[in-house]
Amino acid sequence: PEVDKLAQTGDPEYVQFPRAMLNRDDFDFSYSGLKTAVLNFLQEKPEQEIQQHLADICASFQQAATEVLVKKTLRATRTYQVRNIVIAGGVAANSLLRKWLKAEAQRFHIAVHSPPFEFCTDNAAMIARAGYERLRRNLQSSLDLNAYPALRLGKAEQGNL
What we know:
Strand order of the largest sheet: 1-2
Largest sheet: 2 strands, parallel
Order of helices and strands: HHHHEHEHH
Oligomer: single chain
């Protein structure tokens, strides 16, 4: 991951990007505000300044994205008395997430498990496999099927999605 590599040498305090929903008691999170903030920041700055501080911008972005994920995950472990955390998929390839989550979880005697970096890839292959398995079993959706990005998992399971 290029952002992770660049962030290694950057200053995570260079830009204070937003941490959406961080202080809410639920476990929801959204990166749309962060994405917009980064885009606006980049559009306001001259190209030369962006290139000069690219590592700092990446580190600031990574810090904001990771902080919300780590804090909400740890809040969930306390709420549900979880003793193990698994991080997988593309996000598990992020070195800051691995380091920060393991350090914070250790304070609460919670184990963090993650596959080796080479197995932390985008979920596209997993989604393709799930689609293949549905097709193989002749499970097809109608063409008017719609996406519901805010659908909660419990609702998806009830709807047989």
